[in-house]
Amino acid sequence: MTNTVIESKEDSVEPTMAKKNLLNIIDPRESWINLLLLFIPFAIYFNMTHNPGLAFITSMIAIMPLAWLMGKATEDIAMRTSESVGGLLNATFGNAAEMIIAIMALYAAYKAGVGTETATTMMAVVQASLIGSILGNLLLVLGLSFFLGGLKHSTQKFSQQASQTNGSLLLLAMVGLVIPAAFESTSSSSGDSSLVNLSHYTALILLGIYAMHLLFQLKTHVDLFATESHHDEESEMSKKQGILLLVISTIFVALMAEILVHSIEFAADSFGLPPVFIGVILLPLFGNAAEHFTALTVARKDKMDLSIGIAIGSSIQIALLIAPLTILIAWGLGLPLTLEFGLFETVAAFMAILVTNFIVQDGESNWLEGAMLVATYAIISIAFLFR
Question: Exposed, middle or buried, 254 (CB in 10 Å: 0-12/13-18/19+)?
Fold first, then answer.
């Protein structure tokens, strides 16, 4: 009876506290990044008035505060779970914008028609954005997490076993990219129908591996990934309001992502940027900003298992879930999208996975290792800019 009374009192107090805290979270006086929410109506206006250049810029900027709000909501919800579930939640909603961008681009290719320049550009952007997401999460996000966390904490520790398991999954995912690239360069078959079929069946296998990974992480080997919970921290929002903030933020991210996709071609021509650079660098940088902000925030709090779970977990989801799904969606639309992302792109992703696996294998990190990862990302980014 006593517990019931206490719970009733907490429930009666929490909505008031949560409402106040939720308003504080979106208050520009609490965080400067909330000021960027003003770019949402500008992006909508420029899109409606057919100004694709400004629509491209404003929609990219608007995604940043929305992604930050998504990060705040997922971090708050993750406090009620283990770090493995929290990292999975952050990675999943962090990749929502990436998946929407890919779907919108594929639909634009479908509307333009197979063989048209627009269709070719859109499919190239989809492939580039997937590679860019893997590079950005493994090198930039993880590197900045190590660097910023290392400036505050001399040496940070994390689960070595979980990192090795995730590293093995990433190497397996790379097989799904390397084999199609090698097949394309060595095959004597005429046309690309064999490559398309190979990509379809490989995508199905990768999806099966991802399903087994979820079973392994959340059911059969929970102790390997779940290290500590967040119940000792004070939640800023109620569970319902955290979910509400997450849903609303995701909807607006989807809207901004749609505007972004429809203005890509104009931006590439007007600003003199290669479409591949936009796909590899800009789209993942802004589209995946949700887990970027969250991973950096928790790294500063010395929660490296959650930070790594977000960065590496997001890359695993891109490689084993998002990429195969885009292949299957393209298959359904009759588009010849394949897992052959180009030799340079494949080599860059393979090197990023090797470097990351080597750095995390000891279960410890410091700021210098973070700086090395960021430097690797900078070199690859410059290469794509001049490609």
Answer: middle
pLDDT at 386 over 80: yes
Place of tokens 């406090």: 79
CA distance 204 to 328: 8
Residue 215's CB is within 10 A of a number of other CB atoms, namely 11
Q: Which residue has the higher pLDDT, 107 or 231?
A: 107
Query: How far apart are alpha carbons 241 and 72 in whole angstroms?
Result: 11
Kindly state the percentage of the chain with pLDDT values over 90. 21
Domain that holds residue 122: 2-385
Task: Give the whole-angstrom CA distance, residue 224 versus residue 143.
Answer: 23
Instruction: Provide DSSP, 214-276.
Output: HHIIIIITHHHH---BSTTSPPSS-HHHHHHHHHHHHHHHHHHHHHHHHTHHHHHHHTT--HH
Domain count within the chain:
1
Q: How far apart are the first and last CA of the chain?
A: 69
Q: Could you tell me the CATH number of the domain that includes residue 27?
A: 1.20.1420.30
SS3 315: helix
pLDDT at 324: 93
- pLDDT tens column, 184-241: 888 765 556 888 999 999 999 999 998 888 888 777 777 766 544 444 556 667 777 7
State pTM to two decimals.
0.80
Distance CA 113, CA 287 (A): 26
> Are the C-beta atoms of 18 and 238 separated by less than 8 Å?
yes
Cβ atoms of residues 342 and 105 within 8 Å? no
Euclidean distance between CA atoms 140 and 304, whole angstroms: 15
Range list of H helices, the chain: 2-25, 39-48, 52-78, 83-94, 96-112, 117-135, 142-152, 160-186, 193-215, 222-225, 239-262, 264-270, 275-277, 283-287, 289-300, 304-317, 323-333, 343-360, 367-385
Q: How confident is the model at residue 13 (pLDDT cuts 50, 70, 90)?
A: very low
